[in-house]
Amino acid sequence: MTFTDTDTDRLADEIATLAAHLDAATHRFLMLIGRFDEAGGWAEHGALSCAHWLSWRVGLDLGAAREHVRVARALPTLPQIDEALRRGQ
User: Fold this and answer.
1) What CA–CA distance (Å, rounded) separates 15 from 34?
2) Residue 1: what pLDDT?
3) Cα separation, 74 vs 85, whole angstroms
4) What is the number of other CB atoms lying within 10 angstroms of the CB of residue 75?
5) Would you tell me the crossing angle of helices 62-74 and 50-58 to the nearest 10 degrees?
């Protein structure tokens, strides 16, 4: 299969656009985790922590789940990063 410069430019643009959508979705995911953690929703399900609940319910590795909770807690204190991630930048 041969690609033209126009084809690869279009692919590059689509990749960049999709990455921005993923960043925005990640922001939403982290905001929901933060709210769930703050509300103690994980305890209502008998989990030891929000990270344990994420690992069980979403299938994240426990270490990755801990990092998600850590970032979810930190984002409100980092307004510029929070806003950039929300906008998919």
Assistant:
1) 28
2) 78
3) 13
4) 19
5) 120
